[in-house]
Write a structure and sequence with these properties.
291 residues, 2 domains
Length: 291
């Protein structure tokens, strides 16, 4: 069977078929267009059909190929981590812009990615900071899941930033509160925590069932994890483990009013701003705390 013959079988969308065949054949997608008469062996056809069947059952393409593009980089993924999504790129853009501020040239600056998952956020941040600037910053990737940390470590290795990022297993910022060694002047927290309310998860379960449930759902209107995080930040300030804190939190658009109210209640001195994604939806909360 040739590449053309296989792709002409329209059980999948053309894009899905091309991406799966490219993965099975271990060739760039462009190769399929320039060599349509190339004959595939039985093993390649069988592996393609197996993965095509997975896709037809609704399994995300990222889990089938084990790869997902994010911020112009390719990341390894598995069913142990949520799939990186385009809207999260705003989180990276805002963090990088802030990090390039001159204050982050000061030694003893720490940047923490809470709930790192595949490591896509922290790796993308490090990759978009000039090498000289990286040396004055300590980067940390935190997750409660050992399996997620394993995937993140592979991505750090894949993108050549192993020397810059330290990994810690922790439930949110518990490790920070337990270890005085983390004390710093400037602290930047980036978090893409679970924020889907249980009822909303039930509505979209068909689309989300392949992803790790614990990495998606949060109680109390989807804000349980963020409320815990904000209370921990309040404790960090109280203990003076950090003097200046900046946070970027990815949220669901409808959570903006409730989160804003909670932040002002717990962190009365905080300056809060919200940013919209490319779709015009409120996506990121910025919390700034300084003396």
């Amino acid at each position: 069977m040739t590449i053309r013959n296989l792709l002409n079988k329209r059980s999948l969308s053309p894009l899905d078929a091309e991406l799966i065949l490219s993965f099975v054949f271990n060739k760039p997608r462009e190769y399929l267009f320039t060599h349509p008469e190339h004959k595939l062996n039985k093993s390649q056809v069988a592996r393609y059909r197996l993965r095509a069947a997975q896709r037809l059952r609704g399994e995300p393409l990222a889990y089938i190929t084990g790869i997902k593009e994010f911020y112009n980089l390719e990341f390894l993924v598995s069913k142990s981590v949520p799939i990186p999504r385009p809207e999260t790129e705003l989180l990276v853009s805002l963090a990088v812009k802030n990090i390039l501020n001159t204050k982050y040239q000061i030694p003893n600056t720490k940047i923490i990615d809470v709930g790192t998952g595949s490591g896509n956020v922290i790796v993308s941040i490090v990759k978009n900071i000039p090498a000289k600037r990286r040396k004055s910053i300590n980067f940390y990737a935190i997750d409660i899941s050992n399996k997620a940390l394993e995937i993140a470590k592979k991505n750090v290795q894949r993108h050549g930033v192993k020397e810059f990022i330290k990994f810690i297993k922790s439930d949110l910022l518990e490790c920070f509160l337990e270890r005085r060694v983390f004390a710093t002047k400037n602290l930047l927290i980036i978090a893409n925590l679970p924020y889907i309310p249980p009822k909303l998860y039930q509505k979209y379960q068909k689309n989300l069932k392949y992803e790790p449930k614990k990495a998606l759902i949060s109680g109390k209107g989807g804000l349980d994890h963020y409320k815990r995080l904000i209370r921990e930040i309040k404790e960090i300030l109280k203990l003076r483990y950090a003097l200046c804190i900046m946070c970027y939190l990815e949220i669901s658009p409808e959570q903006k009013p409730a989160l804003n109210q909670f932040i002002k209640k717990e962190l009365s001195a905080a300056k809060v701003r919200f940013f919209k994604d490319l779709a015009g939806k409120w996506r990121v909360a910025e919390i700034s705390l300084a003396p």
